[in-house]
Amino acid sequence: MKDTDIVEANDQILFNRIARKYAEKDQYIVSSKAREFQLISLVKFIEKKLNINHFRDVLELGCGVGANSKYLKGYYDHYIGIDYSEEFIKLANNLHANNNTEFLCGNLKDYTFHKNAFDLVIGVGILHHLPNIGIVLQNLKKQFNKDVIYGFIEVQSGNPAIQLLRNLRKRTDHDYSEDQNIFSRKFIYETFQNEGFEIRGFLFQGYFTPPFAQVKLKPESIMLPLVKMAIASDRFIQSKCPNFLSWNMIFLTQIKE
Question: 7, 68, 95, 175: which sits with the fewest CB atoms below 10 Å from its CB?
Fold first, then answer.
């Protein structure tokens, strides 16, 4: 078994084990507000850079329990989510599937999509779990046309204090993947350009909200006003003075002409 296969197998086991606990983040009002905010940050950035605010068909890579389909409701006509965790997909179908929303189980590196006319492909925190991003990009590039917009939200390595916290969590939280990578802006640009993609927009995102999105902070009576303040602060910073001290980055890309 190759090293990449070992990483994937370990992550699948982890995600299947924590699926129900993970789903609670999107059912708890404090963390769900922070998680919704990061998705809305992505679609608002697409609107700003590309002047598009509605999509016919959306594909989400690494959809988890499918909650992003709920957060993005109103921005699409049809949504498909794919994840290689069987337990994630079971929960996604139980919680969020409907006439215009469906969830599929499969591995992005070799999955054959029966539909190839997506307007938007999104990934939220998926790339840093991939042992080989290039293989996945090649598979997508082979199946989808050049008009597809790709929008990603990923962790970024610019803030050393945040990096320290992430490394600490890796050592202490058994529900946190040890194999995930943290990217620099330079790495993202080089990786996508090497695979034949063009970066269409980049934004540092999330300064105060990410901890609320990842952990169910309690009590609700205190944390709910705090997360609302965090969202207002992040919205202002992202609009007026985005910088490398953020937790995350948003970037848009398309296949080169």
Answer: 175
Q: Specify which residues 183 forms β-bridges with.
A: 156
Sequence-distant (≥ 6) Cβ neighbours of residue 26 within 8 angstroms: 32, 35, 65, 67, 70
Mean pLDDT, all residues of the chain: 94
This prediction's pTM: 0.94
State pLDDT tens for residues 14-44: 999 999 999 999 999 999 999 999 999 999 9
Q: Which tokens sit at 208?
A: 């105060």
Strand, helix or coil at 61?
A: strand
3-state SS assignment for residue 252: strand
Kindly state the tokens that stand for 241: 């003075």
Alpha carbon distance 11, 4 (integer Å): 11
Q: How far apart are CA 214 and CA 257, in angstroms?
A: 37
Q: In the chain, what are the domain boundaries? A: 3-255
Low-confidence ranges of the chain (pLDDT < 70): 1-2, 175-179
Q: What is the DSSP letter of 115?
A: -
> How is domain 3-255 classified at the CATH fold level?
Rossmann fold (3.40.50)
| AA letter at 190 | E
Q: Which residues pair with residue 198 across a beta bridge?
A: 254
Q: Work out the number of other CB atoms within 10 angstroms of the CB of residue 249.
A: 23
pLDDT tens string 79-91 = 999 999 999 999 9
**What is the pairing mode between strands 55-61 and 76-83?**
parallel
SS3 31: helix
Order of strands, edge to edge, in the sheet holding 55-61? 101-105, 76-83, 55-61, 120-124, 149-155, 248-255, 197-205
